[in-house]
Amino acid sequence: MKNRLIIGLAIFGVLLAISTAYYWGRKQNPLPPAFTPASNPYENGIYAEGIIETLQASGSNINIYPEVAGTVNQILVKEGQEVNANTLLLTIDDSVQKATTQQAKAQIGAARASLKTVEDAYQKQKSAADIDPRAVSKDALDSAKDAVGLAKANLEVTQKQYETAASLLAKYHINALAAGKIISINTAVGSYVSAQGVYDTYTQQNTPILVMGAVGQAMAVRCYVDEVLLQRLPSAGDIEAYMFLRGSTLKIPLKIVRFQPNVSPKIELSNQRTERVDVRVLPVIFSFDQPKDMTIYPGQLVDVYIGKRGAK
Fold first, then answer.
1. What count of other Cβ atoms lies within 10 Å of the Cβ of residue 74?
2. How big is the CA angle at 70 (ends 69 and 71), to the nearest 5 degrees?
3. What is the DSSP letter of 160?
4. Quick check: pTM over 0.85?
5. Closest CA to 210 of 50, 91, 55
6. How far is residue 155 from each of residues 92, 144, 191, 198, measured CA to CA in Å?
7. Residue 72 burial (CB < 10 Å; 0-12/13-18/19+)?
8. Torsion sign over Cα 50, 53, 54, 57
9. 3-state class (DSSP) for residue 192
C-alpha cells in the first residue's frame, strides 16, 4: 500500500512537471503596440525627442517668482486665460508691510512739522540778529541753523524710507510684465510663497508660482539632438523636420526658428537637477501651426525627425 502511494505521488509529480513546462514553454503572442511608432521619413534622418512649448522670441516659458515672501490671499486669473501686460495676477498678504508703509507716511508729516518749527525759530532769531546783532549770540544762531539742516536731512531720510516701503508694498501684487497665456498656476490661496517660488508636493522641489506662455496659436517644439549626431545636422538654411504626436498618426511639418548654441547635459526630460549624466545635447527650436482637428498642449513629448531639405 505504501509503495503504491509513493509510485502514485511520483507519477503525479512527473505529470505536474510536464504540464508546467508545457504551459510556460508555450510561445506567447506579443501585445500589440499602444500606438503605431513613428517611422523615419528621411533616409538618413536624425531622431530627437522634443517638448512642446509656446513660441517665444527667446527662452521658453515665462516663469513668475515673487520678490517677497508671504501667504497667497488672492488668485485673480485662471489657467488657460490670456492676459495683457500689467494685469494683476495674484496678491500676497501685505498687512504687515501696509502698516509699515502707513507708519513711514505718518513720519513724513511729523518730520515736515518739525522742520517748519525749527525753520520758524531760526528765522525769528535771524531777524532779531539782523535788527540788533547783540540780541542773539552767534553760537545760538549757528545752532538754530544746524537744527534746520538736521531737520531737512531727517525729512529726506523719512521720505526715502517711505518710498522704499511703498515700493516694497507694490511687490505684494504680482502683475504680468508682458501679454501672455496662463498655462500653469502652481499655488493656491493660503499657500506660502517666497522668492524661491512654491514647494511642490509631488516633485519635492521649488517651482514658479505661475507659468505664462505666449499669446496666439503659434507653438514651438524644443528638440534635443544628441552630441554624437551634431556633425550630421544640416545648416539652418537647409534643415527640414517633421513632428509625430505619440498616440496618433499625425505628421506635422516644422519650421526652424533657431539653434541654441550651447551643448548641455540632457536632464530636461527627467527634471532631475542633481542627476549625473554623460549625454549632452544641443537644443534646436522649431515652430509649427497647431492642427485644427487636434489639441496640442505645452509640455507634451513628441518624436521629431530632422533631415536635409529635399532629401527623402
1. 13
2. 150
3. H
4. no
5. 91
6. 30, 17, 39, 39
7. buried
8. negative
9. strand
User: Residues near 28 by Cβ (< 8 Å), separated by ≥ 6?
Assistant: none
| Whole-number pLDDT of residue 200 | 85
Q: Which residue has the cell 536731512?
A: 153
Rounded CA-CA distance 68/78 in Å is 22
Q: What is the grid cell recorded at 105?
A: 507716511
How many angstroms separate the CA atoms of 53 and 144, rounded? Answer: 68
* pLDDT beyond 70 at 33: no
Q: How far is residue 109's CA from residue 121's CA, in Å, rounded to a whole number? A: 19
Alpha-carbon distances, residue 61 vs 55, 118, 181, 299 (angstroms):
8, 57, 10, 10
Give the closest residue to 62 by CA, choosing from 242, 143, 153, 183.
183
| pLDDT tens sequence across 151-174 | 889 989 999 999 999 999 999 999
